[in-house]
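To: structure desk
From: M.T.
Subject: fold request, one chain
Message: Could you run this one when you get a chance? Sequence is below, nothing fancy, just the single chain.
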Amino acid sequence: MSYQVHKDFEKDCGYISVEKHSELIVEYLQIGRMPGNMMLSPEEFAPKPLPSAF
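Reply: Done. Structure tokens follow.
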């Protein structure tokens, strides 16, 4: 949430363009969903057992 507030401030003050703001917020939301997806299907992210040598 703090990230979004900072990006809104930067956009409102003219430090970044509206397009750049949108791009950064979309990336932020995508990254924010990653932990939730990992929790919903942890088996996909768990380490795989090493094949035995014998």
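Reply (cont.): Helices lie at 2-12, 18-40. Let me know if you need anything else for the meeting.
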